[in-house]
Amino acid sequence: MKKPVPCEAVEKAAREKLTERGVTVQDIANIVYDLQVKYNPELTIEECYESVDAVLRKREIQHAILVGVELDTLAEQKKLSEPLQSLVESDEGLFGVDETIALGSVFGFGSIAVTTFGYLDKQKVGIIDELDKRKPKIDTFLDDLVASIAASAAARLAHRQRDREENRRLEDIKQRENEELIG
Ligand code: MG
After folding, report:
1. How far is the CA of 36 from the centre of ligand 1 (A)?
2. How far does the centroid of ligand 1 lie from the alpha carbon of residue 158, in Å?
């Protein structure tokens, strides 16, 4: 059996691919902030950055980035065989494999991540919009990958916020019970 690829190598390569293609953690954090601040006015951009960073530590996301960016890059170099070359190059509307790969990597973050991904796919905000417009670069896969990372990071924050609220509520109940016992 072949030795497995060390996970640090995969993570490093995935992060480098994003940077090489001009996408930073900060760019994605900005999208997450805009998505989530309406539900949590105390949200900070640092929390969003941290959440994107946590999502990038997930293996499924790293694998999706490696596959997608590789295909974009090969298409840019005209190295794919036909008809795939033309399909990727023209970002043909019915192609859909770009969305499928990106969507597959958000499932680990629950249904909010799935619906948010759908929203970002339609709305194209921030860096997603910039990627959509830059020519002659080919970002057929990258725009969807960025949307999936942002959607996962936003869903992660939403779940954490609910957990915090629940913990606060339970602590309140406990404290009231204690006060009643003492009183
Ligand atoms: Mg696309």
Report:
1. 23
2. 26
CA distance 129 to 72: 17
pLDDT at 1 over 90: no
Ligand 1: centre distance to CA 174 (Å):
50
- Residue 144 CA, ligand 1 centroid: distance in Å: 5
Residue 42 one-letter amino acid:
E
Q: Domain boundaries in the chain?
A: 7-158
CA 178 / ligand 1 centre spacing (Å):
56
Q: Confirm or reject CATH 1.10.3760.10 for domain 7-158, answering yes or no.
A: yes
> What's the gap in Å between 130 CA and the centre of ligand 1?
13
> Which phi and psi (to 5°) does residue 181 adopt?
-65, -45
Does 159 have pLDDT greater than 80? yes
pLDDT tens for each residue of 12-63: 999 999 999 999 999 999 999 999 999 999 999 999 999 999 999 999 999 9
What's the rounded Cα separation, in Å, for the pair 181 and 85? 73
What Å distances lie between residue 140 and 35, 90, 172, CA to CA? 23, 8, 50
Q: Which residue has the tokens 């204690």?
A: 178
Would you call the peptide bond into 83 cis, given omega within 30 degrees of 0 as the criterion?
A: yes
